[in-house]
Every structure is written in C-alpha cells, then in structure tokens.
Automatic annotation (TrEMBL):
Keywords in alphabetical order: Membrane, Transmembrane, Transmembrane helix
Domain Protein root UVB sensitive/RUS as annotated: residue spans: 56-290
Source organism of the structure: Graphocephala atropunctata
Identification of the protein by name: Protein root UVB sensitive/RUS domain-containing protein
A GO CC term attached to the entry: membrane
Keyword Transmembrane helix tagged: yes
Family in the record: Belongs to the RUS1 family.
A Pfam family the protein falls into: UVB_sens_prot
Amino acid sequence: MLNQYSAIDMPQSIIYREKYGINGHSSVYVRNPKGDSSLVQLSNGLETPPRRSLYSSIVNFLAEVFLPQGYPESVREDYSRYQIWDTVQAFCSTISGILTTHAIMKSVGVGDAAATALSATLTWVLKDGIGMIGRIVFAWWRGHALDTDSKKWRLFADFLNDAAMCLELLLLPMFPSHSTQVLCITTSMKGIVGVAGGASRASITQHHAVRGNNGDVSAKDGSQETCVNLVASTVGMAMLSYTEDKMMIWALFTCVTLLHLLANYKAVKSLSLVTFNRERLNRYIRSYLLTDCSYGPQEVNQWESCIVGISYTDVELCGFEIKLGYSLQQLVESRKIGSEELVVMADMFNERTYMLLPHFKS
C-alpha cells in the first residue's frame, strides 16, 4: 500500500510512506540530506530495520508460508473464520481416512496368505474405474449447480465422504467376500465427493481472492491442508498402533466424524458470499418486502440453508415457479406459447433483452 502525504500531513522531508499488510514493516522515503534529487529509504523511520524477536520471526515466516501474500487485505473478512474450521475438518477427515484404510487393506488381501497380487490389483483397478464413471456422471448431472450453491454442495460432499468411509468400516469386515462390490459403491461415492468438493472449493477460493489472486489463495490453502494432513496422519497412525480393538476404533471414528461434520457446517456458515444465487435473492426480497430494510451479505448468508434439497423457493416467495433462461424453442416445443401470444409478447418486450411469460396450468 503506497500513500503520498502532503507537506501539511507530514514533515516536508518525508515524501512517501509505504506499507504492505498490517503486520508489515513500513518504509518512508525522504529527500537525500546531501541535497541532490535522489531518495533515501528508511525502515520505520530508521536507517536500519529494527531487530525482530525469535518468536516474531517464526510467526512472520509461517505467515509467509501458509497465508496469501498481503493477508489480510488480499482476502475477504470471512477468510480467517472459514480457514480455522476448514483446518479442523481436514484434520478429522484425515484421521477418519486412516481408520478406514486399515479395513480396506485387509479387504483386498493385505496380511492374507491366500490372497494373490492379481486379485488385489483387479479389485483396486475395478473400484477406481467405477469411481471415475461416478465422477463423470455426477459432473454431467449437477455440474451447473456447483457454483451457485457452493455451500450446499461443499457440505454435501463431506457428508457423502463420511458416509462412504462409514460403509467401508462397517461392511468390509462383515462381508469380506463382497469387498469388491462394497469398494465399488464407496469409491463411486468418493468420486462424487471429488467433483462436488473440488468445484465448490474453487468457487469459495474465487470468493476469498479479492485481488485476483486466486492462484495464491488456492496454493496457500493447499499448503495448509497438506500440513494438517501430515500432522493428522501421525496422530492416526499412533491411534492404530496403540489399539486394535474394533469397538475402540468405532468410538474414535464416530467422535472424529461428528466433529468433522460440525466443523464443515461451521465453515460453510461462516462464509458471507457477496453474490446472489436463487435462494439468497429470494430471502433478500422477502426480508425487504417484510421490513422495508436492505440487509447486507452477512445477514442474507446466515438465512441461507446449507442442506441440499432444503431451500427457500420461488413458490414460497410469490406463489409462482420462476424459470430463468428458457429458450423460445423450449417454449414452442412444450406448447407453452402460441403464435398470437408470441406476437403480443415480442411487441411488449421489443426494446428489452428478455421476455417475461406467465404460464398457467389448466
């Protein structure tokens, strides 16, 4: 951030003061005391920068490694709240994954002298193939909704991931002869998780990056998650090495999964998206009609549901189902408009780039 001060605001010898980020050291630029036209840079008004403590140096280093450049000005205000809960959920998800990986390895024959490498390989390839098909089908079916309802699909993805791991932990030990079928089902579920979670995460990253720094925000988010995964992996391996009791593993898995779902819910509820989707627009219009007040993004986002399938619809708002983006071809093929109606509507909306067509079912 570069500021210019007039002679009234600052001593005439100071020409510029520069500071990047609230925790950064400021520098001032003054005229060269020798009298020529060159500038002299001073750090915090001193010719030599102040010495930092060891603690301050470590904190600044970690901030440079794990936070976007220019934090907090380079991200939105809800970034910190979201990342705290996102870190908690990533930690829990990794531990849950380690607990279920133990069951998966046993199901494909690890530790079983009768199992062959070929059968384990075929099982692994088959489950991965089914998962890929699941990703393609889900992206075709729901890809268009992942941007507008990113909070809903982010929470849905993590819930589905927990459900898949729960099935693996429950069914694989009970039905070892059907491990291939179970793994195909759970891997297809995780394939959906990959699409929904990845797309919604990209949308959230775009929201947080206020300076067009999507790449930096995404990269630092990946660094944070990688660090958390390393720590969680160590904790998870320690858990497995100290206990083989199934009831204890189930107790740990249940606690971690519940905390994971809670952290995900808190994470998406902490977001204050500044654009309208259909539900946020409906809730904003309703609140304005009822109170004659214009509410900000934070209030509107708190009213929005984060559960897929639960939403404040157009019918609840005005009694009509509003469909946007219909083409004339769709209307003609569905016989929702005739030639006489089209002539009237075309004349009415002649100078506009849209057309409003009421349709009443008989």
